[in-house]
Amino acid sequence: MIAIDMTLDFVLEHQLFGEIWILSDSRSVVQYLDNWRDVSDRRGMDIFNELRTLCNTCVLHLQWIPSHINLKHNDIADSLGKEGTFMPQAYVEPLT
Hints:
alpha+beta, two-stranded parallel ribbon, 4 helices, 2 strands, RNase H type-1 domain-containing protein, RNaseH-like_sf, RNaseH_sf, RNaseH_domain
């Protein structure tokens, strides 16, 4: 969900309007967002507010794709995500 939230932030910040496809290999995230009436956490609400803003100017698609079946762009996204885990992180309050 973090990646979807950050992507929507980027789209809004750079005003990249048009047809937008959000592909995720996380079935649980797609199912969670599909049950939007039950979303109550902050990140989920942020995503829905961004989607609401974008739906006025874009055609939005959210689709689950299977993982680990050698889809070129999914493998690239996974590699970039793994690289990102080694980058310095902004300050985050410790978990209690």
